[in-house]
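Researcher: Please predict.
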Amino acid sequence: MDIFKKCYDYKLADEAKEAGIYPYFHELTSKQDTEVEMEGIHQIMIGSNNYLGLTSHPEVVEASKKATLDFGTGVSGSRFLNGTISMHVELEKRLAKFVGMEEATIFSSGFQSNLGIISAIAGRNDIIFSDKENHASIYDGMKLSYAEVVRYNHNDMQDLEKKILLTKKKLSEKGIQKGMIIITDGVFSMTGDVADLPNIIRLAKKYDIRVMVDDAHGLGVTGKNGKGTHEHYNLMNEVDIVMGTFSKSLASLGGYVASNKEVINFIRHNSRPYIFSAAIPPSNTAAALKALDILEKEPQRVENLRIISDYMRGKLKESGLKIKDSNASTPIIPIYTFTPKRTMLACNILFKRGVYVNPVLPPATPPGECLIRTSYTATHTKDQMDRAVVKIVEVLNELKDYNE
């Protein structure tokens, strides 16, 4: 059988295009901001992860330009060999200090960070306890590690403890010892939920298990100073590994891991995705550094993000739309649209009317629970939110009886 048969048989995207409901790959023709130009249509952007509004900040842009002039467009090698520049080292030191860890190291992307971290620290003789709603990069990192994976129900601490006890019982009966780690998103990317970190830490201490938090959507978002989920819960010294990205609050591209010196040293010398990938370019490094500068100097951006997110959450509730509530004030607000076709159609109509949002379909959601994922920026205005709500309500009311 031809290995390409699955490609030739795949018709879903073409069928959606023919039906006029295909919602992906719209072209951006302006800077990423609270309002953008896409395919000739002016859009209120409530579908990006530009949480602090720094992607178009003049200081971030200027820092990126200067780094290109000083260091060139790329480093032409991995961090392990010729690809380390002084800015990489500076960024690592700054990140480690900011998130309250001994050391940090940076990867070429957030997705690659999880692949590189998890596959390095976990192996065939280890067990990973993973929240069922963790990011796809965590799932792929776990596959690459060959560790045994035990999934627990989303944010369900009773289920987690039950599975820890059952796992330990089985190992004890066989006289086997294995390394164990709990891995969770800090802020869950589709729902905006925040991990129940206090109870995860409690269980980890009780059963002698390590903890890793993927704070890709937590950095710059949660905690008084935007340091992440562990700051949000006042647990800065309790997490073993913190991972994050630059493509969201830090207005760039790349990822990082922060932990104690020994763990970072091990990852640097044993992580295949780290060793065999080129380092992030100078422009991205400088942009992330400058964005981190601004985050540290202007913590009010974190508060502004909470204010605008809470304002929009309130407006959507007042309008009568069914939204998925988060257990904390986060800038991710999903709106239930239930069926795939209704979701895609709603996103397409909103696009044509000048509001950009993201469709979330199975397998990212359970069947019948499709969502429009909206996300907000510290520099959004209440006027922009008011205009967006009017159009969202208008479109979803028009599609109220559309059940395909």
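Model: The CA atoms of residues 183 and 212 lie 5 Å apart.
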